[in-house]
Write a structure and sequence with these properties.
single chain, 637 residues, alpha/beta, Rossmann fold, D-Maltodextrin-Binding Protein, domain 2, 4 domains, 8-stranded mixed β-sheet, 3-stranded parallel β-sheet, 19 helices, elongated, Glutamate receptor ionotropic, NMDA 2B, ligand-gated ion channel, transmembrane helix, postsynaptic cell membrane, membrane
Amino acid sequence: MNNEQFGHSTASAQYFLQLAGYLGIPVISWNADNSGLERRASQSTLQLQLAPSIEHQSAAMLSILERYKWHQFSVVTSQIAGHDDFVQAVRERVAEMQDHFKFTILNAIVVTRTSDLMELVNSEARVMLLYATQTEAITILRAAEDLKLTGENYVWVVSQSVIEKKDAHPQFPIGMLGVHFDTSSAALMSEISNAIKIYGYGVEAYVSDPANRGKKLNTQSLSCEDEGRGRWDNGELYLRNVSIEGDLNKPNIEFTADGDLKSAELKIMNLRPSANNKNLVWEEIGVWKSWETQKLDIRDIAWPGNSHAPPQGVPEKFHLKITFLEEAPYINLSPADPVSGKCLMDRGVLCRVAADHEMADIDVGQAHRNGSFYQCCSGFCIDLLEKFAEELGFTYELVRVEDGKWGTLENGKWNGLIADLVNRKTDMVLTSLMINTEREAVVDFSEPFMETGIAIVVAKRTGIISPTAFLEPFDTASWMLVGIVAIQAATFMIFLFEWLSPSGYDMKLYLQNTNVTPYRFSLFRTYWLVWAVLFQAAVHVDSPRGFTSRFMTNVWALFAVVFLAIYTANLAAFMITREEFHEFTGLNDSRLVHPYSHKPSFKFGTIPYSHTDSTINKYFKEMHYYMKQYVNTNRIS
C-alpha cells in the first residue's frame, strides 16, 4: 500500500514490486501517488493493481478532449517513473478511438529542462496532457507561463500524480483540468478490506479447483514475525480471476490479464479560485466511469483566463503547409509577373514549385521573380482554398510535391502526395485526387465534390475525306440494286422493245438495202444510252425508233433524274472533312487487355504512379507490363 499519507517514495515502491516479481511473489497493490509505476514482464503477471491504472487515467483525459471536440493535442511528461507507459497508453487509446473520433498527437515531450518546452511554442497545440509529480508540474507550468503557453487559449489536463490535495499551488493556471481518485486514509482502509477479500476468494477458488484436490497450501507456519514458507502453483491466476461484488450501482471488482482493474471511477477536477478568492482549489466537476456508455458527466467549468467558453483547441489564426500537383482546371500553373514577382488578379496566388533543398540560401524576393522557384496557381481548388482561408482564418504556403507523383505504393512505401501526408511533411494536399481503398486507409479525404472516373483518351485525325465518300450517300444494297438490277433491266427492256418494233432493229437489213440512211442500233449502243442518261452526259447517242422503246427510255431518264437529285443532295454531307479516332469499349477491350493479339499492336500508356496506373497494375498485369515501354514517351496512340 502506498498513499499520500504514508509516503511518496516511488523508487522504494518500484524496487519492492520488482523484487517481488523477480522472486515470483504475487502482490496486491494500491499505489495512490503514482499508479503509473513502470512495469516489467517479470512482475506484470504477478501484480494486481487496485488503484485506477494509467490506462484509465489516459482514457478519462481523452474523454474530456472528445467532449469539447479538441482533436489535436500534445503530451508533456517529466522523467517520472512510468512516463513512457503513459505516452504509450495515450497512443493506444487514440488508436482505439480513431473510428469515431480523430485525434492527432502533435508533440510528445519529456521535459528534462525548461528549454524543452520551446517545441510547444513552435507547435499549433493548444491542449496539453501533463503527467508529472506535483513538484515537477510546478516547474513545468512556471516555464510554460514564461513562454506564453498558458492563458485563455491554452488548456492543461493533468493526471492524478499532479493533484495531491485540494489546495493547489499558486503557480498553476486557473482553468486546469485533471483526473483524480480518493487517496485518503478511509480509501486506504477500504482497499485493504478489498485486498483481503481478493486473497480469500483466490484461496477459495484454488481449493475448489478439482485439479488441486489433495494439495495443501501449507500456510500454518507463516506469520509476520516467524520464518516460514508456503507456495501454491499458479496462485496468481486464481487471484486475477476473482470477482467480488462491488458497491451499490457499481460493477464487480475484476481484473484484466495485466492485473489492472476492469472498471474504474475517476473524478474530473477543475482548478478555480476558492470562495474567498485567496487561493486556488481543485473542485470536483464531474465523474468518469469506465463501465458506462456515456462515460463522462461534467458540470460547469472555470475556463482558462476566466473565460465563459471553452478554448477552440487550435490557434486563432494557424498556418498550413499545403502540397499540390497541378491538373487543369482544378489547379493551373502560370508564370508570375517577372518585374514585381506577384500574380495578377486573374492568375491566382503564388506557389512554390522548387524543392526544399533548392531553396537553401536563396533570396525569397528574387526567387518570386524566377519561374523555376515560384509560379502562380489558379483554378477551382485555389478558389476554394482562398474561401476557406478567409472564413476559417488561416494562412498557408502552397508547395508542389517534390517527386511530381500522385501517390501509389512502390515497394511497400508510399510516394508522391500520399507520402508527404503519411510522413507528416505537409498538413494538407490540394488537387484532383482519386479516392481508393489503399489511400483511404492511410489518409483522410474530404467529401468529394465531383466524380470523374477513368477515361480513355485517343488521338484524333482531322481534315481527312474518306476515299469511298462518293459512295456513302447510298448503302451497298442500293448500289447493287442500281448497278446490277436497274441498269441491266432498263438496257434489256429498251433493246428488246426496239428489236420487236417494226421500225426498229429487225428492219436493219431491209433499211440497209434501200436509199434510207442506215439504222445504227445495237445492245452495246443501248448500254451507252442508259449510262449517258443516268449520268446526264452530253455525248452523242443513238436513240431508239420504236414507240415502246422510246417510252422505256423516258422512264429510265425520269429514274435517273430522281436518283441523281437524291445522290447529289446527300453527297455534300459525306464529302466534308471528318475526325477519325479509335473507339474502345472500355478497359476490357481486347486491344488493350491482349495487345499482342492485334497486328500492329496498339500503343497506349497512362500517367505513372497514379490511381489508374496502380489499378491497371493490380488487375491487368499483361496490359501494365506492355504499356511500360510507352509511358513518358511520344509514341502513344
